[in-house]
């Protein structure tokens, strides 16, 4: 159903190490595991495990503020990021101009 559909942006590169023009990302939608794909669309599996999750409600032009907060907070949190992909997940349609965004940072156990 549409309420189970999730939209994500997966980041393949570390923004601190990779110049902006070379950073790679995947724009994704959730699909059932058994979904078949052809060579125009590929399927990615987000690895399980432990994630630090920061939830925000923001205007579209404020997304960078959310990432700034996460980048500043994480080193003081006691959590250590690991090598899995970071991603953003969006919850539903924007309400009153605000987007629900969850930032997922993989962490070591």
Question: How would you explain this protein's 3D organization?
Answer:
The chain has 109 residues and is mainly β. Helices cover 10% and strands 34% of the residues. It has one helix at residues 63-73, and strands spanning 7-11, 25-29, 51-58, 86-95, 98-106. The mean pLDDT is 89.
Summed up, what is this model?
This protein has 109 residues and is mostly beta strands. 10% of the residues lie in helices and 34% in strands.
Topology of this structure?
Layout: E1 7-11, E2 25-29, E3 51-58, H1 63-73, E4 86-95, E5 98-106
Antiparallel strand pairs: 1-2, 1-4, 3-5, 4-5
Query: Which structural category fits the helices and strands?
Result: mainly beta
Write down how many β-strands occur, each being a DSSP E stretch of 2 or more residues.
5
Largest sheet: 5 strands, antiparallel
Mean pLDDT: 89
**Spatial sequence of strands, sheet with the most strands:** 2-1-4-5-3
The rounded distance between the terminal residues' Cα atoms is 33 Å
- Rg measurement, Å: 15 Å
- Give the proportion of residues in helices: 10-25%
Q: Write the element-wise H/E pattern from the N-terminal end onward.
A: EEEHEE
Key traits:
five-stranded antiparallel beta sheet; mainly beta; 109 residues
């Amino acid at each position: 159903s549409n309420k189970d559909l999730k939209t994500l942006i997966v980041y393949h590169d570390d923004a601190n190490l990779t110049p902006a023009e070379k950073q790679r990302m995947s724009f994704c939608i959730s699909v059932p595991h058994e979904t078949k794909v052809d060579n125009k669309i590929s399927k990615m599996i987000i690895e399980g495990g432990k994630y630090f999750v920061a939830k925000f409600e923001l205007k579209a032009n404020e997304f960078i503020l959310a990432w700034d907060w996460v980048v500043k907070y994480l080193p003081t949190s006691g959590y250590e990021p690991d090598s899995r992909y970071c991603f953003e997940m969006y919850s539903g349609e924007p309400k009153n101009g605000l987007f629900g965004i969850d930032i997922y940072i993989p962490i070591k156990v």
